[in-house]
Amino acid sequence: MSVLVFVEIKNKLRKAAKEAITYGKNLGEVNVVTYGNASNEVLSEMGNYGAKNILVYRKINEPNDQVISKLIFKVAEKLNSEFILLSQDQTGKSIGPRVAAKLEAGHVSGAISLPEVSDDFIVKTNVYSGKAIAYVCIHSDKKVISILPNSIQPVEYKVDPIISEFKEDLGNGRIKIVDLKQLGDGIPLPEAELVVSAGRGLKGPENWGIVEDLAKSLGATTACSRPVADIGWRPHHEHVGQTGVAIRPNLYIAAGISGAIQHLAGVNGSKVIVVINTDPEAPFFKAADYGVVGDAFEVLPKLTVAINNFKASQR
Amino acid sequence: MKILVCISKVPDTTSRINFVDNNTKFDENGVQYIVNPYDEWYALVRALELVEASGGTVTTITVGTSKDDPTIRKALAIGANDAVRIDADPTDSFFVAKQISEYAKNENFDIVMTGKETINYNGAQIGGMLAELLDMPFVSLANKLDVNSTQATLQRDVQGGIEVVEVDFPFVLSASKGMAEQRIPNMRGIMAARTKPLNVIPPTDHNKLTSVVKFELPPSKTGCKYLDSESMDELVELLHNETKVI
Q1: Domain range spanning residue A7?
Q2: A183 in Cβ contact with A6 (< 8 Å)
Q3: Terminus of chain A with fewer CB atoms < 10 Å: N or C?
Q4: A213 and A108 share a domain?
Q5: Residues of A in contact with B99 (CB under 8 A)
Q6: pTM for the complete prediction?
Q7: Do A251 and B235 touch (CB under 8 A)?
Q8: Does a structural domain hold residue A182?
Q9: Alpha carbon of B178 to those of A182, A236, A291, B45, B112: distances in Å?
Q10: What's the rounded Cα separation, in Å, for the pair A274 and A253?
Q11: For residue range B8-41, what is the model confidence (pLDDT) as tens digits?
């Protein structure tokens, strides 16, 4: 079966790309399509996960969704691809539905597991903002599936990839990019495996140093609750929860967050949750694996020391 | 300027989610419905601000049954000029996008807006599908929108950054947090909404590409292990050896 995986590469191969290729390898022989100026060295790294044919379109460097959709559509037509796979990140959200509508293909966005295939083709995805899971049956022959980051473990499978260039000129999209601010090299929240988050219990933005210290010791990404983003203590892109970013890290440490149902919805895909709160009645403890009833100002620095000691002992 | 805002009804954000009929149907018992927050707070309100500043109309569109009418009236109370309801039970995203595109293709809208996702299905699919079906550019996840007479400037979240883009009319956008502030309808708005036009039109026929066969609730935690704030070394040890996440 022909599988086409769309991958976005910025300097290096992201974990999300390896996840998508691994997902594809489970369905058939993997063809990859990408764009930009990635080196052949980075492109061939995809061969470690089973990407056999790699097609790169070098005429654009920016995530121009009309051009990328056209690129995927053209390649999918040519290869008669049955599956089109991509990551459910910002680019995937803007491209997946376009490609699906063009192909009249059933689309599941945010798949959290490999499909269950019997008479039907069924993919699991989060619904109700993480409060439930839906089993979605795709009826069409062609299927477009975007994969939620941190849902599939990348598996090594070495092949010798064939890299070639997509030569045809696809023109310009009608959207003109006038400015692009990079948010830095940190791991974006949806892809982070370790997350340290804090809420109003921290009492003010000037106190975030202890949160950042812990995150730094762990190599974690920082996040926050909605009220904290709303009052401007932290940037909006750090807000996790029902109306913010939904995350599914291996470890989520939450300090000074009570655990309202809207917050839980965004984080309950986390494998392990540690809750630190002064209020023993905080609802978040019910969703936690480990709880510390105590003041974040006291507990976070102690946890940072413990992590540092642990890291030192591992060397 | 002529703006179309797609709105959907969703369970209130504080709803407990349960299922009935062998986990195949959402349990509506005791559930309060609201306009999807991304559709209302950001898309609809920004659309109203734009026509208040420079003239035009805001039409809302919904694919749904008469059960959707109260939430449609709420959107009219906030200030939309009129509403369209395509009289069908929405089956999947493609069905909904197709219905809306069939209506919108002849109406010459300058901007078609959706929320970035609904908080019940979280598919984030309708905007992109509409853009393809209407052959328009799609600005996803926009958190700022300004317009002049021929084009719009938008700020949007992209992978690893924030992008500013310019696009000519017509185009489709999906609105995320930051585009506008929530508005509470006043009594005059609520009274006026009763007599504003809500046009119910029949659906067109389309293939069903996907369907939900069942739902389940995420596995619940087995119980919280409490540690003293003096035992952080023990917590680290548990994270390393018991749950193996560090």
Answers
A1: 2-165
A2: no
A3: C
A4: no
A5: none
A6: 0.94
A7: no
A8: no
A9: 19, 9, 34, 11, 18
A10: 5
A11: 999 998 898 999 999 999 999 999 999 999 999 9
